[in-house]
Amino acid sequence: MDDERQWAGPAPRPLGIDTGRITLRLAIPLHDPLWTYVLLAANVLVWVAMTALGGSENPVILVLFGAKYTPLILAGQYWRLLTAIFIHVGVVHLVFNAYALFSFGIEVERRFGRTRFLVLYLLSGIASTTASFVGSPTLSAGASGAVFGLAGASVAYFLTYRHRLGAAGQRSLRSILVVVGLNLVMGFAAPGIDNLGHIGGLIAGLWLGWVYCPQYAAPRLSPMDVAVGMPSEGALRAIDRTPTLRLWAGTLLAVVVLGIAIVLGTWRWM
């Protein structure tokens, strides 16, 4: 599907024809979201199950379902660094994070694609829980760190295309920065907020958002395309030419850093 917002870029000059510099407006390719809805459903289903078995605010239930609990992580249950992002403490916690996931998730998945979105979300969530694990031994859970990762990816996207997307893109960037800033300030002002988790997720999202950001390019035009006349504005769609090596290398680096952080956290609390 094509986005109504368009991206302007120079068309390549066909060989053998002096056409001068031609500027095209290219439709940004967008993807239909899927994983955003799956993740939302998973969060709700886990909360319903926790509520049915004794309450999502019960520490025993939280630990049973996989919240970040340092003694058990040190005992080898490192999977809690992932499962904790699907657990919420009370309905208010769930509603706020679900709304934030829906707001950021839809747009990030549309721009980055399903696979990149899912990997970005999960790695940001693990980074969030890992940062919390390294910095604090307290019981914690929630998807907010992963959502901060989506916000970080959005910042990376709009920074990358701040000139191409014009005033609308710059307004979106400012709005996201304000939302992130306000949430960080409120997190430090209010008790019981896992600020380390938020910061860890945000940093991971910024990095992965930069790595996974689509590298748009204009499609190649043949001399015949130019001879018969240029396509109408918006009729051409930009192509994502992000190098595969960039995607794999950036992801591997993130995984290595997470591994080192987990080792440091284990060493600290042993």
Describe the structure.
The protein has 270 residues and is mostly helical. It has a single domain (2-269), classed as Rhomboid-like fold, CATH 1.20.1540. Helices cover 62% and strands 7% of the residues. The protein contains eleven helices and four strands. The protein has helices at residues 35-52, 59-65, 70-74, 80-83, 91-112, 114-135, 144-160, 166-189, 195-212, 223-227, 244-269; strands spanning 2-10, 23-29, 216-217, 239-240. The longest helix has 26 residues, at 244-269. 34% of the residues are buried.
- Count of the domains: 1
CATH architecture: Up-down Bundle
Order of helices and strands: EEHHHHHHHHHEHEH
Shape: globular
Supply Rg. Answer: 22 Å
CATH superfamily: Rhomboid-like
Helix percentage range: 55-70%
Strand numbers in spatial order across the main sheet: 1-2
> CATH first level: which class?
Mainly Alpha
Biggest β-sheet, characterized? 2 strands, antiparallel
Strand content: 5-15%
Low-pLDDT windows of residues? 1-19
Mean pLDDT: 88
Summarize this, please?
The chain is mostly helical and 270 residues long. 62% of the residues lie in helices and 7% in strands.
